[in-house]
Amino acid sequence: MNRISRDGFTTAVMFRPENIFYSTAFWGEAVAICTKDGTKLFVPELEVSRAEAESHECEVIPSQRGKGLIKSLFPSLYNTKACSDCNDFLLANAIHSKVDKGNFVCDCEPFLIVRSVKEQNEIDRIIEASHILDKLYQTCLEEIKVGVSERTLQAQLICEATRLGGSIPNYPYTLNPFIIAAGSNGSFPHAEISDRCFCDGDLIVVDLTIRYKGYISDATRTFGLGKVSDDKKKAYGIVKMSQSQGLDAIRPSIKCKDIDLVCRNYISKRGYEKNFIHSTGHGVGLEVHERPWIGPENDDLLQDNMVITIEPGIYIESKFGVRIEDTVVINGEKSHNSNAITAFTKDLIII
Amino acid sequence: MNRISRDGFTTAVMFRPENIFYSTAFWGEAVAICTKDGTKLFVPELEVSRAEAESHECEVIPSQRGKGLIKSLFPSLYNTKACSDCNDFLLANAIHSKVDKGNFVCDCEPFLIVRSVKEQNEIDRIIEASHILDKLYQTCLEEIKVGVSERTLQAQLICEATRLGGSIPNYPYTLNPFIIAAGSNGSFPHAEISDRCFCDGDLIVVDLTIRYKGYISDATRTFGLGKVSDDKKKAYGIVKMSQSQGLDAIRPSIKCKDIDLVCRNYISKRGYEKNFIHSTGHGVGLEVHERPWIGPENDDLLQDNMVITIEPGIYIESKFGVRIEDTVVINGEKSHNSNAITAFTKDLIII
Predict the structure, then answer these.
(1) Measured between beta carbons, which residues in chain A are less than 8 angstroms from residue B89?
(2) pLDDT > 70: what percent of chain A?
(3) Residue among A50, A152, A172 whose CB faces B191 most closely
(4) ipTM here
(5) What whole-number distance in Å separates Cα of residue B342 and Cα of residue B148?
(6) Hey, what domains does chain A have and what are their CATH numbers?
């Protein structure tokens, strides 16, 4: 609320579950209205008792769903200057038909900016999620064998992650929660899980995201199986060094695009410019992808206690892919080795 | 496209992955523009080769992400009358700054209406997802024991579902993919998974959604463990009969609200009116919750080949919950017993 009020707003109105959780510790179907006098949490009847049990320092207000819910918000929206994460076209128009646009500003960015710099208790949970990831990569060493399918490995990893207290974040653009992409499937950065079995000579990209008590860690390792060819080993070595140089470059006040440039230049100079087909990384926290964006056009500056990924890759169409990714806490006092909170080795392991 | 053009539009512009998948068989980060001359699929560079491999009858057009993507759409939006599922406030405003509002209408409903009546190949996949659910409930019989936790059971079920080719749908308002709610947790319809262990005397609500080749089935069973008290058995019997009467009432051309009323009346007349705190069901398909809505205020008519859930429940605060849910294909020719495509028994099983 402090950050929002610095921008001259008296009220924050939140519709997105991530922002509501950030403000109230309740993750569910709700709307939160926050002023200096406290937070009101409007929830449909089916969520009232859970919201009362799980939310912190809120007044829980039972309300209807849909149009009825919006009606119940209006009394709290008159005579305020509100900033809202509402990015729903119809909903925003409905509210703007009753409340002046200048007094109900739809802008997600202030919320994302606040969330981009983490508190210690948030970092602690991201570290816990990273520990789960480290265990899952250890499991990969045991489970990856010739003849085992991508789908079977995914099942094993999800089972273990869930047992360890992790859950699977929502990512709307894939049907499967993990990316496990063997051989030519690895050339798709966002490959879907298939029934393809691991073969001798494969590189296998394993990109895992795990949520722990709300907070996400994101990492990728690429494993080799059997007789891995020299061109694959060469690409692996380049990605590994690119990622390492990206980590080394991280410090408070560096521009995001300069981190991207470090990773990209290393790959480009070795002839793979056209094979690194995505940005270098992204912030991570309550969402898999959030501020700051570590891409070639972003002038934003890194700050202490931001949490980002560094994940360069090389993708050779119809042949293979390599990606190596860590989740990193920006902390001016530490070297990158302690910042990268996924500890599992980045040496090429050939199983 | 036929339905959209009946409303006088020449072009459909799709941003939501469900609608893009429906039109192109590609699930990913993309924008689809569909006219009578064919479909253009605009995808960021990292998704191009996957889109080319997975999409059907599309021209795949490599484009940038974010603002660059929007720019590349404009040439296809001039001199058309487009209907779009765009419900993003900033994006809609950006497009409306260049294209007349009347020629770029933001309205998700036509897309949801088309998707609400399923083709046979969609129904077949929902039936496959239901078969997976039946196997998971069989697993529950083996795994539910005193001392096993909700979290452990979830891990086991996710593992099995994933092995069987299922994946976990995104539902934004819970952190866990399944609802497994034992004892007093069962009184929260959208309970989160916890480390609570099953105890003698518990009712255990197990609400599972599984996606198979894109399409979702949704079901709930409530199990008893050990010495289940008479008040729990009584509530179970009422929910079971309410659900059965709801299924019996299903036929083409009945109003959605009349189905809701059948289930609700049965429960209300037995004194539990205040304990059935959600609507009776919802459509299911590419999303867990989609048209039609089986709630008390919906005058929409059921039609053949719609797929819906029927899921009445009774929730006793701080004590227990009961919910029984099937996914059902509306088919005028069949009795409800063959329409309810989850086959697992709805008798109270006491483990």
Answers:
(1) 86-89, 92, 106
(2) 97
(3) A50
(4) 0.92
(5) 25
(6) 2-116 (3.40.350.10), 120-339 (3.90.230.10)
